[in-house]
Design brief:
The protein has about 450 residues and is of the alpha/beta class. The protein is about 45% helix and about 20% strand. The protein is built from 20 helices and 16 strands. Bound molecules: flavin mononucleotide. The site of flavin mononucleotide (FMN) has 22 residues, from helix 13. Its EC number is 1.3.1.88.
């Protein structure tokens, strides 16, 4: 039996009712069948929530038929990427992606974008997504909890990327409030229909990025369910959603290894890949097809190249790319803080000046000053905490008092002074001298030098 109702086509065959709805070129198919009460209840919840039936058989779908499956896609289209740059909100925009590609990254993700905002707001799309022909292979990541919005968002970019990734790992409060990211990991009735709808409607393959659930067997079940729903590559971040911030700890590569063994699609291992040597360690321990790095790549965007490239040079390259691929200044500044962190920690006044930069030339100027100080072996500059300021003040007052006392004693006992002089001088030359300077924010800095090597750090006011 077949019945056409507007854009809806209903077919009933062998106790299975199939309803196909076409809206704005998004096709969702639902079907119901005779089954146990328990199964029906679960299915009803899912259908109620999403309009899509989990038992959907996706035969004869031209979109799916035209996609290469699993490893075929991974090898032929993506060229078996091993070194992958993680999706990073506020960071993996076009200029940074191109920088990573220059330095050995095989595949790069966009930052997570909110599917409903992307689907409905032109400004959001313009602010958050841009690409160029060289920006490939590229994976665009969305978060969301409704198939309709995720599919609509993905439609906008399906011609400009190699795959769409569903974020199932974001552990932040904003994700809890919005009910997306890692807060969906234990809600398969929400996420599986999204993956099915994407697989069914989007030209490019669908990937997922998950965190670990508290129980590994549950994580394995989820991973298999995602695979069955049409997910063609799974990234596993080897931490639970509770392991974040100061509680992040080391990623669990053994758990990733267990998950990898159970799946037939490519698996990417994520977490604790901080330097070049970690790549092979992680691949060997997990058996994964590739590794994904976030923090390591932010600190050293050339990490995947295995070359010892000075981060000053990387920063210069990045600023050049920001001219070619316009980037919000705040984003560029944030990258500079991260890639130059270890150097800026030793030049606190420059670090504070970087905070104040309001133009690209000012950013470049800080990079050049930093380079100059390193090359000239300039003394370290440290910002004083309030406690250190008090201690410094007390020390200076004490020194002043001592000096006054010495002067008085000098006047009355010249012979004694001469006897002790050598010893005092030896002591002084080994001590670190402390000088202070202020910037326009009234931050007080100390310049830590050895006697004779001191050179006041010029402040830019
Ligand atoms: C600044 C920053 C932004 C991030 N944004 C995202 C994001 O948009 N989507 C996502 O799936 N994960 C995001 N993450 C998590 C990383 O992709 C990655 O899973 C996590 O940092 C663990 O990898 P790591 O140990 O190499 O840092 C972000 C991480 C950082 C540090």
């Amino acid at each position: 039996m077949s019945e056409q109702t507007g854009t809806e086509k209903v077919e009933v065959q062998d106790n299975i009712t199939t309803t196909t709805t076409v809206t704005d070129s998004i096709t969702t198919t639902t079907s119901t069948t005779t089954t146990t009460i328990e199964e029906t209840k679960t299915k009803e919840t899912e259908i109620e929530h999403t309009g899509i039936n989990p038992e959907l058989t996706l035969i004869n779908n031209p979109i799916i038929m035209n996609k290469l499956a699993g490893y075929q896609f991974f090898e032929k289209i993506l060229k078996s990427p091993k070194k992958i740059v993680a999706p990073m909100v506020d960071h993996t925009y076009l200029a940074f992606r191109m920088l990573c590609r220059k330095y050995g990254s095989d595949m790069v993700y966009t930052p997570m974008m909110h599917s409903k905002n992307f689907a409905t707001q032109k400004v959001y799309r313009k602010d958050n997504f841009s690409t160029c022909p060289e920006d490939r292979p590229l994976v665009v990541q969305f978060c969301g909890n409704e198939p309709e919005w995720v599919v609509k968002a993905a439609k906008y970019v399906e011609n400009d990327c190699d795959a769409i990734d569903l974020n199932l790992g974001c552990p932040q409060q904003i994700a809890r409030r919005g009910n997306y990211g890692s807060f969906l990991l234990d809600k398969p009735h929400i996420i599986l229909p999204i993956v099915r709808a994407l697989h069914q409607n989007i030209k490019v393959p669908i990937f997922c990025k998950i965190r670990l659930l508290p129980n590994l067997d549950d994580t394995i079940k989820l991973a298999k369910d995602l695979q069955d729903a049409g997910c063609q590559l799974l990234t596993v971040h080897g931490r639970t959603k509770e392991q974040k911030g100061q509680f992040a700890g080391v990623a669990n590569w053994d758990a990733i290894a267990r998950i990898k063994k159970e799946l037939t699609i490519p698996v990417i291992a994520n977490g604790s890949v901080l330097e070049y040597e970690d790549i092979d360690r992680c691949l060997n321990q997990t058996g994964a097809d590739g590794v994904m790095s976030a923090d390591g790549i932010l600190a050293n965007p050339a990490m995947f190249s295995g070359l010892n490239v000075d981060t000053i040079q990387v920063a210069r390259d990045y600023l050049e790319l920001c001219h070619k691929y316009p980037t919000q200044l705040g984003i560029a500044r944030s990258h500079l803080f991260k890639m130059l962190k270890s150097k800026l920690d030793l030049q606190a006044d420059l670090r504070d000046q970087l905070h104040q930069c309001a133009t690209y030339p000012e950013l470049s100027e800080i990079v050049e000053q930093l380079d100059h100080r390193i090359k000239t072996n300039a003394p370290q500059v440290k910002v004083l905490s309030n406690k250190e300021k008090r201690e410094l003040k007390a020390k200076q007052e004490q020194e002043q008092k001592d000096q006054n006392t010495t002067t008085t004693t000098d006047n009355t006992n010249n012979n004694n002074k001469r006897d002790n002089n050598n010893e005092d001088e030896t002591d002084q030359s080994d001590k670190k001298k402390v000088k202070t300077n202020n910037d326009k924010n009234n931050n007080e800095y100390v310049i830590l030098t050895k006697d004779g090597a001191s050179e006041p750090v010029p402040m830019q006011n």
